[in-house]
């Protein structure tokens, strides 16, 4: 039986899981937002990584088809998105029940109206979200349950009149957290088959797409190919699905890391510092790495590693988390943008407005003042991005500077404006240095954890009994 | 080891000394003794004793208040009276304590100063501190000595002469005036004999960390060991007796192959040997210590235990040259050494005591310690290829001790050490 190894990185903002095989190759990765119940966050990340691993195994089986036939590529992409809708829908059903129950418990005089408005909202957003998952690839946008629902819900609440605003928002606030903290079990096979059925209906009714110039050529090619050949894809997949579903993803060992690692129900020797994990992960992906910069939700870490990927020294932000990922989240809220929009918007700047980088909350006030004075939004954003990197550069200097090669990891490394300033400032201070950024940079800590699990942890997995005890404490 | 056994005779002796001093302070008027406030680095304990004065060390009171969880309210009191958040927390704790009635850490009232004696000027805050106290105690005589910094890593005859001149022309005449006692050099010489002897013993004690396992923790327990020598008992037969006793107790631990004593009994396994730079945090002293001993880390040397005097390199008080040796003593305290000297001293500790790592505890409100710490750390890392760690906390302000942050960093640091050890063993 094949052995797999799991690394879980419980960060302050997101929880990540990575599964590797016996050759350190990543077979699955999962991510979710960290929530009050850490165990649920970790379990969801792990489940997601296992689903991902199954999909990847499935893709391996049809490897040749994927390369040669556009309909396979399109189908698999759609299948994943619709699969995610299946998961989403189950959680949404729980939320719906809880919302209704919450409102039914209200003592407001206009309770009946509120309930009616709530049902209207739910009936509006449900098909909206379904449509986006099935037809607009919502699944690939890395949005979490809470983000998807609250965006839609808030927009609808706005339309329901000021008198209903408070009770409707209160119902949401009261219901979303328990819903998120509940562990929902899914049946992989059931979800996949359900997703295939949905796709069958979708493609059946699909009209030929005319090239209207809105998309790249491959888009139409894939779409038309899948429309004409989806039955063939389905047929091929059905051959493999049974096999994939029955394939046991046997996690031989695991390691927990990250800010919340102490709360993971793992034995002590299965817990590793995120410093070591990030460095090890980054080094595995880029073996010439000597300096790692990781910007996470509340930590910025500058780490020096040797040729084996072992940490020789590190420095972290202390006392204050201004300039970390959460800072970007806060700034995004201030501007009413999503996190993904921040970087592109900042890159439109014609200059960088100087922003004091010492405090997240004060930066918010500074932003308002600058906007009031007529400063352009992209310029302010550019200044904010630059300020974050200035702080990071100071930490790097304190840890011993940048050595070649330099690897940038953490969720913030997905932001293109951040990357631009890191490149620029590393060059200014340290000259020409090879800089590595991986699309999976957010998973580096979990990857390093999984690699530690494979190497030097000789204890057995915690049994279910251990887990229960740990949770009971 | 049982709780009973932990209360060794040396501890009893120390307790008696401290209580005796505070009792005397409480009865200073009755005893007809004058009171001299002074600071630990470069303290002129022997001279104070020659004039029969009782010493008060505001920093010691501050750290004791912190260990008794009283510093937060004192600091708040000082801040209410316009001391900024960035002022040294020792100062604020002391000022706050004074404003709240000057009840000392042992519960007895601390008398007003007759003399404010500043004999170390490497810390600018000390000067400002006494300027503040001068306003509160207008009757106190302020005696300030300028102590030259060891800029060129040496104490030249001119520097010694410059300081002796200040002793002769400023310090001694003013002390005579306040106490009405004539300066008695023979008495000073006698006191210095005891100082020298106590210094010999304490050097031997801190040298026992050469053993494996180390029988003592030279930081967390070390701060207790330096107590008598830093609070005015240097130059007394009591101190000599205390250190002799302590040394023999440690010898017994070595004979039995025992590790250091911690608040939770004996440390079972010595996994890591560390050298620590910087003062400890006092408000969460126990929790801070626990992080180390839980990980099996013992501190084999620390710079903080040298603030009251650096004896490692052979320097001692010299009864033959009393004033000259007092001058040298002032100039030779740890924070008066230049940065390369400090690096050399710490490197020597790391090498001689075979430390696995070097940790800096950077103190928010202490400039004389924090300045240069990062550079020192980098230099030591480069020179000795020893894994270094850096944490930040504060002296006596509980608001600046973040347990989870410090634990997180230290955990990472210890795992890094473990990894390095594993690699070394594999390569060996």
Strand tally of chain B is 10
> What are the secondary-structure elements of chain B, in order, as H or E?
HHHEHEHHHEHEHHHHHEEEHEHHEHHEH
Supply the number of structural domains of chain B: 2
Order of helices and strands of chain A: EEEHHHHHHHHEHEEEHHHHEHEHH
Number of strands of chain A: 9
Which key terms come to mind for this protein?
heterodimer; A: 473 residues; alpha/beta; Nucleotidyltransferase, domain 5; five-stranded mixed sheet; four-stranded mixed sheet; 9 strands; 58% helix; globular; B: 428 residues; Rossmann fold; 2 domains; four-stranded parallel sheet; 10 strands
What would your notes on this structure say?
- The complex is a heterodimer of chains A (473) and B (428).
- By secondary structure, chain A is α/β, with parallel strands linked by helices.
- Chain A has three domains: 1-60 and 250-285 and 450-473, ATPase, nucleotide binding domain (Nucleotidyltransferase, domain 5), CATH 3.30.420; 62-247, no CATH class; 287-437, 2-Layer Sandwich (Nucleotidyltransferase, domain 5), CATH 3.30.420.
- Helices cover 58% and strands 11% of the residues of chain A.
- Chain A has 16 helices and nine strands.
- Chain A has helices spanning 38-61, 63-68, 70-104, 111-135, 145-158, 162-180, 188-204, 217-246, 274-285, 325-335, 339-346, 360-372, 377-399, 416-430, 444-456, 464-472, and strands spanning 4-10, 14-20, 26-33, 251-257, 291-295, 300-305, 311-316, 406-409, 435-437.
- Chain A has a five-stranded mixed beta sheet with strand order 7-6-5-8-9. Chain A has a four-stranded mixed beta sheet with strand order 3-2-1-4.
- Chain A is globular and about 60 Å long.
- The two termini of chain A are 34 Å apart.
- Mean pLDDT of chain A is 86; it is low at 457-473.
- With 428 residues, chain B is of the alpha/beta class.
- Chain B has two domains: 3-180, Rossmann fold; 188-427, 3-Layer(aba) Sandwich (Rossmann fold).
- Chain B is built from 19 helices and ten strands.
- In chain B, the strands form three sheets. Chain B has a four-stranded parallel beta sheet, with helices on both faces.
- In chain B, helix 2 packs antiparallel against helix 13 (237-256) and helix 16 (339-352) packs across helix 18 (373-384).
- The two termini of chain B are 35 Å apart.
- The model of chain B is unreliable at 1-5 (pLDDT under 50).
- The chains are: A alpha/beta (473), B alpha/beta (428).
- Chains A and B meet through helix 9 and strand 7 of A and helix 18, strand 10 and helix 19 of B.
């Amino acid at each position: 039986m094949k052995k797999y190894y799991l690394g879980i990185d419980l960060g302050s903002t997101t929880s990540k899981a990575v599964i590797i095989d016996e050759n350190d190759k990543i077979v699955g990765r999962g991510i979710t937002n960290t929530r009050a119940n850490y165990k649920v966050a970790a379990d969801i990340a792990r489940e997601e990584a296992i689903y991902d691993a199954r999909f990847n195994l499935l893709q391996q089986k049809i490897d040749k088809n994927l390369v040669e036939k556009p309909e396979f590529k399109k189908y698999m992409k759609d299948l994943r998105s619709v699969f995610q809708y299946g998961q989403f829908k189950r959680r949404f059903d729980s939320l719906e029940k809880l919302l209704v129950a919450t409102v039914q418990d209200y003592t407001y005089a206009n309770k009946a109206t509120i309930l009616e408005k709530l049902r209207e909202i739910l009936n509006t957003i449900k098909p909206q979200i379904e449509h986006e998952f099935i037809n607009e690839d919502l699944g690939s946008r890395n949005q979490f349950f809470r983000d998807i629902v609250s965006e839609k819900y808030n927009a609808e609440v706005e339309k329901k009149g000021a008198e209903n605003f408070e009770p409707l928002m209160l119902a949401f606030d009261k219901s979303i957290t328990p819903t998120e903290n509940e562990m929902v079990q899914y049946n992989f096979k059931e979800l996949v088959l359900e997703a295939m059925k949905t796709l069958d209906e979708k493609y059946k009714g699909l009209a030929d797409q005319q090239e209207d110039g809105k998309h790249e050529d491959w888009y139409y090619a894939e779409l038309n190919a899948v429309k004409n050949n989806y039955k063939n894809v389905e047929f091929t997949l059905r051959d493999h699905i049974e096999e994939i579903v029955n394939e046991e993803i046997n996690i031989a060992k695991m390691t927990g890391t990250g800010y919340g690692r102490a709360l993971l129900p793992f034995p002590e020797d299965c817990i590793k510092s995120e410093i070591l994990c990030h460095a090890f992960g980054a080094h595995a992906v880029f073996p010439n790495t000597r300096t790692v910069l990781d910007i996470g939700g509340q930590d910025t870490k500058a780490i020096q590693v040797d040729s084996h990927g072992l940490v020789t020294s590190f420095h972290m932000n202390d006392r204050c988390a201004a300039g970390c990922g959460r800072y970007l989240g806060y700034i995004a809220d201030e501007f009413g943008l999503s996190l993904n929009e921040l970087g592109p918007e900042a890159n439109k700047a014609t200059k960088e407005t100087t922003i004091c980088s010492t405090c997240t909350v004060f930066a918010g006030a500074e932003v308002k003042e600058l906007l009031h004075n007529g400063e352009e939004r992209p310029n302010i954003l550019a200044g904010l991005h630059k300020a974050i990197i200035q702080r990071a550069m100071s930490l790097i200097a304190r840890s011993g500077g940048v050595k070649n090669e330099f690897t940038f990891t953490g969720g913030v490394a997905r932001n293109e404006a951040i990357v631009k300033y890191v490149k620029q400032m590393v060059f200014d201070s340290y000259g020409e240095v090879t800089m590595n950024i991986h699309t999976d940079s957010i998973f580096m800590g979990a990857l390093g954890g999984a690699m530690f699990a494979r190497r030097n942890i000789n204890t057995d997995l915690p049994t279910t009994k251990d887990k229960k005890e740990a949770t009971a404490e | 080891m049982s709780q009973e056994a932990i209360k060794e005779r040396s501890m009893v002796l120390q307790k008696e000394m401290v209580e005796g001093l505070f009792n005397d302070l409480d009865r200073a008027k009755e005893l007809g003794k004058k009171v001299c406030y002074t600071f630990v680095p470069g303290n002129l304990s022997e001279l104070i004793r020659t004039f029969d004065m009782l010493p008060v060390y505001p920093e010691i009171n501050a750290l004791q208040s912190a260990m008794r969880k009283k510093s937060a309210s004192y600091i708040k009191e000082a801040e209410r009276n316009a001391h900024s958040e960035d002022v040294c927390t020792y100062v604020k704790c002391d000022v706050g304590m004074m404003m709240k009635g000057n009840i000392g850490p042992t519960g007895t009232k601390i008398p007003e100063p007759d003399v404010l004696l500043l004999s170390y000027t490497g810390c600018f805050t000390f000067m400002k501190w006494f300027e503040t106290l001068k306003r509160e105690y207008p009757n106190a005589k302020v005696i300030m000595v300028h102590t030259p910094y060891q800029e060129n890593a040496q104490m030249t005859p001119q520097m010694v002469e410059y300081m002796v001149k200040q002793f002769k022309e400023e310090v001694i005449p003013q002390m005579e005036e306040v106490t009405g006692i004539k300066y008695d050099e023979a008495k000073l010489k006698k006191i210095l004999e005891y100082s020298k002897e106590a210094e010999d013993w304490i050097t031997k004690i801190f040298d026992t960390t050469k053993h494996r396992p180390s029988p003592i923790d030279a930081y967390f327990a070390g701060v207790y060991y330096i107590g008598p020598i830093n609070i005015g008992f240097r130059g007394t037969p009591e101190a000599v007796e205390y250190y002799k006793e302590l040394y023999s107790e440690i010898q017994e631990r070595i004979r039995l192959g025992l590790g250091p004593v911690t608040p939770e009994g004996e440390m079972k396994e010595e996994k890591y040997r560390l050298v620590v730079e910087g003062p400890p945090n006092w408000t969460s002293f126990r929790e801070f210590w626990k992080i180390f001993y839980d990980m099996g880390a013992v501190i084999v040397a620390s710079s903080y235990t040298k603030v009251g005097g650096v004896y490692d390199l052979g320097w001692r008080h010299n009864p033959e040259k009393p004033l000259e040796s007092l001058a040298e003593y002032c100039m030779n305290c740890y924070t008066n050494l230049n940065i390369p000297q400090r690096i050399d001293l710490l490197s020597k500790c790391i090498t001689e005591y075979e430390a696995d790592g070097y940790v800096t505890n950077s103190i928010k409100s202490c400039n004389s310690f924090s300045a240069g710490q990062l550079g020192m750390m980098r230099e030591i890392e480069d020179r000795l290829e020893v894994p270094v760690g850096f944490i930040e906390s504060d002296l006596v302000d509980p608001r600046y001790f973040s347990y989870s942050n410090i634990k997180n960093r230290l955990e990472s640091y210890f795992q890094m050490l473990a990894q390095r050890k594993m690699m070394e063993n594999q390569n060996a």
